[in-house]
Amino acid sequence: TETGDEPGALAAAGRAVLDAFLASPLAARFGSVEVLARELPVLVAGADGACWRGSIDLLYREGDGALVVADFKTDRETDSEILSERHGAQLAVYAEAVRRAFRLPAPPRAELWLLRHGRVLAVDPAPALARLKLDPRDG
Q: What's 98-109 look like in SS3?
């Protein structure tokens, strides 16, 4: 009510996103991965003293043992370049936090799980790591 949004409209919009997710291959994929953490809080310091914090929606392990950072998004946008630009820095921080915590030689794979569209978008964290001055050799 504070934003002027009708509760019924918000519930319907939320239900539409949930229904789209459940009807997509993402729901089955979510049920088949080895979940290591959900809503995992992270804090990452850069070489220049800047700090970033957030919560990783999903950290999971692939069948081959590789770690994957996934962030759930409900954007209406479908353009991969726009989505990668919009969310790349966030995923880069999360991937770098996992790299440091697990002492990996490189950041793990980073994915956007587009719940509204039922698809996964892999995002290369390297460009954003460079912009944010998060050197993978730090930490």
A: HHHHHCCCCCCE
Q: Which residues contact 74 (CB under 8 A, 6 or more apart)?
A: 17, 114, 115, 116
Instruction: Report the candidate in 112, 92, 87, 88 with the shortest Cα–Cα distance to residue 42.
Output: 92
pTM of the model: 0.83
What gap in Å lies between CA 69 and CA 108, rounded to an integer? 7
The number of beta carbons lying within 10 Å of the beta carbon of residue 134 is 27
Give pLDDT tens digits for 95-130: 999 999 999 999 999 999 999 888 899 998 887 777
| Dihedral sign (CA 61, 54, 87, 12) | positive
Ranges of beta strands (E only) in 30-118 are 34-45, 51-61, 67-73, 109-114
92 and 67 in contact (C-beta within 8 Å)? Answer: no
CA 123 – CA 3 distance, rounded (Å): 33
* Token couple for 7: 């509760």
Query: Which is it for the CA torsion 131, 133, 134, 136, positive or negative?
Result: positive
